[in-house]
Amino acid sequence: MQKVKIPVTLDPVRAAQKRSSYDGVVPLKNLSRLSEQLLDTSGEVTVRIDCDIDEQKLVVLSGEANCDVQLSCERCRQPMNLSLHCQFAFTPVRSDNTALDHIPERYDVVVPDEHGEVNLQQMVEDELILTLPMYPVHDESFCSASDQLSSFGVVIDEPEKPNPFAVLQELKKK
């Protein structure tokens, strides 16, 4: 099957009326904010987007994105591979729209630009960034830092302090 590039932008209303589906790829190097976090940007993100109108007559852009990325382990600073997978469902609303209270929780909101178009690559990039772990680390059994001692310096035993309630306990015995 031929890999087709996902369009950068699309008109969500027109695409939903046509019940359009997009199945293709986005090069990782095109996703600049995600690429800042990665060691290697030579891969691709596999993306599927379905455009539809739901029961409430809301335009919905739903789909999923998958990719394999290479990050730096926070413990040992060695490269680590990670598979990212995210599912999403967006509904476009204008920034002046007061009907935000009536949008179901299962949909995220996306604001179209002045031409009524949505940036698909930015939507996918946002979702992938949200799936990145805050602190990427290898599994402890594979991490080279787990072999090193995890404490630094010398721990000095503190002398035992008398219990401040010991006086009360003596009074209670009398």
UniProtKB/TrEMBL annotation:
InterPro entries: YceD (IPR003772), YceD_bac (IPR039255). Pfam families: YceD. Coiled coil: none annotated. It comes from the Bacteria. Keywords: Ribosome biogenesis. The keyword Transport does not apply. Plays a role in synthesis, processing and/or stability of 23S rRNA. NCBIfam families: PRK11193.1 (NF008395). Belongs to the DUF177 domain family. This is Large ribosomal RNA subunit accumulation protein YceD. It comes from Alkalimonas mucilaginosa. The lineage of its organism: Bacteria, Pseudomonadati, Pseudomonadota, Gammaproteobacteria, Alkalimonas.
